[in-house]
């Protein structure tokens, strides 16, 4: 009897293994000669440029360390909990890029996460979002990439330990987490909302940064847009869990995504900065409006903004107090000397280019990470609001100084509990900055 049970279990295991191999196996697609630029119309190439900008292709496929690298030639380092991953060269170089990929092979990679050679792609490449893109958008993107300058550059090998380095296991990840299929419009919403949802959920892959991940590196479907840690910054929640006292309305979102600064919430910094400046500032305005329209619905802006007037008044009052009369609070004096001159605002609302910290995400998040990053890194004239810079205080403020400023702002600008271990956390964030900013204040 036991032998029969063991034999049955072995047979089931063998059948299951064969079934998994059948599911996981994809044949190679034959290489092609790099297509001639003349085979694509100027209109299709321009449409592809827009698709590439709305998907931020150059952001993850251009090396930034070791002196940088040619655009779209890959080798961008992505640090993950599983090890470092380096992006692919997506220029039309036939040897080190995708120059010998047919459009069929490119479509398969975008929609199914499988390379031309039949190898499963690591989901650091967000094919779980790109699968929602239409065939036309993928075709236009192919036309754009195949007409870029070909760059012969090999990326560094991924640093994934065994057995995570086995690409076949990625098929198991897909079996658990990946549902292929083009975005289907929601009939309960209008065309603008659906356009915004299509872009946000698909090509723009907003959830890849703003949704927390589980132990397998998959986005938590139970917590969409709840915020996550990205490149040593916190990508804040994009839903109703965003803690700022004034609502991210459709107009605030549009201003932020199009121009890099929202009147009430301040400038885009860190990994978010290139999104408005390099990419969304170059696409049709109606697409940015669509994304803003979609997320204003996701965060229930219409229901929440009734509290904004009172929150704004409180913020302006506290900002005025900082510069009126002497203070005996040593932390307040430190803040006045380092920050208040540029962050002071008066009623009725903040001046553009002078962000009010009481309304900024950085003070309302669970950790002071983003506040410390901005203090240490600063903002150049190309980041945040165009032409407005904030110096780095990397050399000017110690970890203890930053901890005092953070504690002061948290208790005077928010209604939330104090942060803990502030000096220790300041030191930890400082260690993530490998290059001292050139605009460092002394």
Automatic annotation (TrEMBL):
PROSITE patterns the UniProt entry points to: CYTC
Binding site for heme c 1: 57, 60-61
Keywords, comma-separated and alphabetical: Cell membrane, Heme, Iron, Membrane, Metal-binding, Repeat, Signal, Transmembrane, Transmembrane helix
Residues noted as binding heme c 3 in the record, renumbered to the chain: 339, 342-343
Cytochrome c domain boundaries: 43-149, 191-299, 326-413
TM segment ranges: 5-25
Binding-site positions, heme c 2: 206, 209-210
Cofactor: heme c
Annotated compartments: Cell membrane
GO cellular component: plasma membrane
Superkingdom assignment: Bacteria
Primary residence: membrane
Molecular function terms, GO-annotated: electron transfer activity; heme binding; iron ion binding; oxidoreductase activity, acting on CH-OH group of donors
Cofactor, free-text remark: Binds 3 heme c groups covalently per subunit.
Keyword Membrane belongs to the record: yes
PANTHER family documented for this protein: ALCOHOL DEHYDROGENASE CYTOCHROME C SUBUNIT, BLL4482 PROTEIN-RELATED
Protein name: Aldehyde dehydrogenase
Lineage: Bacteria, Pseudomonadati, Pseudomonadota, Alphaproteobacteria, Acetobacterales
């Amino acid at each position: 009897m036991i032998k029969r049970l063991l034999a049955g279990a072995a047979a089931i295991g063998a059948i299951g293994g064969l079934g998994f191999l059948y599911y996981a196996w994809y044949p190679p697609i034959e290489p092609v000669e790099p297509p001639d630029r003349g085979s694509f119309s100027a209109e299709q190439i321009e449409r592809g440029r827009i698709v590439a900008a709305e998907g931020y292709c150059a952001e993850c496929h251009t090396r930034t360390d070791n002196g940088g690298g040619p655009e779209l030639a890959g080798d961008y380092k992505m640090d993950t909990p599983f090890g470092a991953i380096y992006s692919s060269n997506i220029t039309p170089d036939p040897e080190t890029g995708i120059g010998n990929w047919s459009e069929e092979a490119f479509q398969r990679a975008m929609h199914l996460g499988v390379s031309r050679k039949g190898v499963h792609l690591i989901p650091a490449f967000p094919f779980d979002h790109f699968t929602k893109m239409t065939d036309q958008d993928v075709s236009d993107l192919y036309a754009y990439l195949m007409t870029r300058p070909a760059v012969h550059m090999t990326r560094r090998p991924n640093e994934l330990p065994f057995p995570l380095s086995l690409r076949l296991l990625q098929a198991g990840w897909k079996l658990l987490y990946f549902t292929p299929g083009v975005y289907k419009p929601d009939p309960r919403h209008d065309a603008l909302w659906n356009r915004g949802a299509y872009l946000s959920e698909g090509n723009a892959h907003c959830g890849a940064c703003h949704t927390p991940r589980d132990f397998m590196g998959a986005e938590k479907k139970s917590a969409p847009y709840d915020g996550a840690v990205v490149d040593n910054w916190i990508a804040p929640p994009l839903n109703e869990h965003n803690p700022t006292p004034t609502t991210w309305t459709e107009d605030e979102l549009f201003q932020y995504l199009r121009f890099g600064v929202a009147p009430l919430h301040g400038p885009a910094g860190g990994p978010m900065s290139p999104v408005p400046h390099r990419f969304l500032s170059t696409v049709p305005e109606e697409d940015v409006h669509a994304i803003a329209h979609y997320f204003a619905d996701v965060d229930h802006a219409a229901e929440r903004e009734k509290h904004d007037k009172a929150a704004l008044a409180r913020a302006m009052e506290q900002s005025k107090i900082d510069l009126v009369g002497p203070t005996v609070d040593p932390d307040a004096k430190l803040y006045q000397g380092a920050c208040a001159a540029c962050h002071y605002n008066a009623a009725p609302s903040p001046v553009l280019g002078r962000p009010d910290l009481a309304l900024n995400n950085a003070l309302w998040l669970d950790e002071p990470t983003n506040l410390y990053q901005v203090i240490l890194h600063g903002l150049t004239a190309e980041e945040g609001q165009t032409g407005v810079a904030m110096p780095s205080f990397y050399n000017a403020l110690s970890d203890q100084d930053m901890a005092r400023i953070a504690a002061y702002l948290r208790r005077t600008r928010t209604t939330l509990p104090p942060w803990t271990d502030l000096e220790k956390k300041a030191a930890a964030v400082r260690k993530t900055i490998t290059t001292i900013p050139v605009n460092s204040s002394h």
